[in-house]
Structure formats: structure tokens, C-alpha cells
Fold this sequence. Notes:
Elements lengths: L1 H29 L12 E6 L7 H16 L4 E6 L7 H9 L5 E2 L25 H9 L1 H7 L7 E11 L1 E4 L13 E4 L3 H8 L4 E4 L5 H6 L5 E4 L1 H6 L8 E3 L5 E9 H6 L2 H35 L4 E3 L3 H11 L1 H10 L1 H9 L7
Parallel strand pairs: 1-2, 1-3, 6-7, 6-8, 9-11
Antiparallel strand pairs: 3-10, 4-10, 5-8, 5-9
The protein binds succinic acid (SIN).
The site of succinic acid has 9 residues, from loops.
Amino acid sequence: MNRIRGQFRRQKGWQHFGLALCGWFLCAIVAGFPIAVESAEPILIRFSHVVSESSPKGVGAKRFKELVEQRLAGKVRVEVYPGASRYDDDRAILALLLGELEMAAPSLSKFRPVSKSLQIFDIPFLFQDLAHLKRFQESASGKQVLKSMEARGIRGLAYWDNGPRVIATARPARVPIDLKGAVFRIEPSDVTAAQYRLIDVVPLAMPFSRARDAAITGLVNGQENAWSNIASKRLQDYLPHLIELDHTFLSYMLVTRTSFWNDLPADVRRELENIVAEVTAEVNRLALEKNAAARAAVAASGKAQIIEPSSEQKSAWQAAFAPVREEFADMIGRSLIEEAGKSATPSSN
Ligand code: SIN
């Protein structure tokens, strides 16, 4: 009997405590006391890149942060790590997969470990000009390439432009034979390495963060890059002969981790997609302006010689690099290369 009474008293005790708690909450609400309800932390997007903040990609990353924090205030926060301050491009892809980053925009030449088809963009003289490249990137095949790394956990969100690659060398060169024996810093692309081996140039793959030191120390006596990157690293001070060959274009893929993107609340993802589209248009417009300005600045520096090859000289480069296409055709996919060829002219429909 005593045990039953004890149990009854304990139950009563809990009921009183419960009532008191509810009462406190009601009073607190009526009196307007702040009740500590844990608010959700904004989603963090860490965006890493390797170039200067004033480059087309650097401006794009900053603009992305600005728009996200305006339109998704309190929901999403963006941290941008520019100039390889945290990760070089090769490490960035790994960091993305490991969940240390949510966004990056590596050069298309840097996806070799995760995509074979992306190497199409390194085939010399496949794309006649920037318009041709853009038509291909916007075609069904180009969009397919954007999705080609989904199974590896990487989602391509957009292509971002920089500009045509210019060859910068310590010695003047008008035809391939002039570069025989040179050592070139290249991006980590098997296709680019093969291209240079064909003309007896030794390719040395190294990160962009080491491009200037490699030129200063004479470790390399040649490189290739877009005007905006040449000017930002002042490569013309050490590699003053600049050959406008337009053999390939420096272009980027804005990427995120597939699982991160899929797990976003639908409304947040939609807004981010809108922002990506808006920033992409801005970056691509800016790329033209910034490369033209960088070219003009290098020309005005009085330190550089800009070499525009004659059509005969250009044919010599085209003939020298031609075997690359066949060498990599099976690996990249012959049909994809054919599709790229079809984008040479605007389609009639
Ligand atoms: C970049 O523009 O992101 C770097 C390209 C390079 O590695 O040369």
C-alpha cells in the first residue's frame, strides 16, 4: 500500500513540475521574454580559386558571394579563397570531394583525374575561335560534358571563360622549330604535354601558383596562358616574346559536390542556379574586356614583343600539333570530337 502511495506522490510531483514548466513558457511568451530557440546556421559555401581577385574568375567569385548574401541572406554564407590561398587547383578537386570545399572553378585542363571527355578542350586548333568554343559548350554535347563527372561526385554548373592561350617564351619564336629544346610550364594535361613533346619542347606540369617563380628562376623558358593571367603574374618581364597562336582557350568549369547540391533545400538551390546563370553571363562578358585590357597593358609595358603569326606560320604550328587529335581521339571519344567540329558554324535551326 505504501509503495502505491509513494508511486502516486511521485507521479503527482512530475505533473506539478510539468504544469509549472508550461506556465513559465506561457508567461514568457505573454511577457515577450526571449525564449532561446536555436536558429539554423546559414549553409556555408567555400569557394576556392587560384587566380587574382581582379581576373574574370576572381571577379566572378566575388560577385557570386555578393549576390548570394543579398538574395539568400541568413540562409547561405559564402567564403572565397582567392589566389590559391588555401588550395591549388589539383588539390581543390580533392577538397571538394572530401567535403572541405563546396565550389571551385578549375581550368578545364585540370579535370584529367576525373574526366576523360573534358580533355577535348585541350586539343590544339580544334576550336577556331571563342565563338566556336561557346557554341560547343552550349550545345547538347557540351552540356553532356558538364554532367560527365556526376558519377564521380562532381556536378558541373557552368562554363566560365577566360581567353585564348598565348605562348610566352624567353626567345622569339615564329614557327615550331624555334622552340626546340625549350622547357615549358604547362597545366597538368596529358594532351598539352603531348602537344609540346611533338615539337621537342619539354613539358613540366606545375600549379599556377608557381608559374611566376618558374619563369624568374629560369626553371622554364616558356609557358602558355590567357592574357589576363600573363599580365597578373607579369610573365612578360621574363618571357617577353608572346605568340598569339589561339591554339586553345583557357576556360573553366564552375563545379560543386553533387551530394551537397542535391541536399540543398529546393528554393535555395533554385536561387543559387539563377545567381550562377547571372554571374556566368557577367564573367564571360568581363573575360573579353579584361583580356583585351591585359593585352594592351602588356603591349604598353615596352618589355614585350607580341608576335602575330602569318597564315603560313600558323599552318606550320597546326601541322606540327595535328597528331595530338588522333592520339587522344579514342580516349576522349571520336563522336564528341565530331560534334565539336559541327559547332564550327552556327546551326541553321
Ligand atoms: C587559372 O586561370 O585558373 C589558372 C590557369 C593555369 O594554371 O595556368
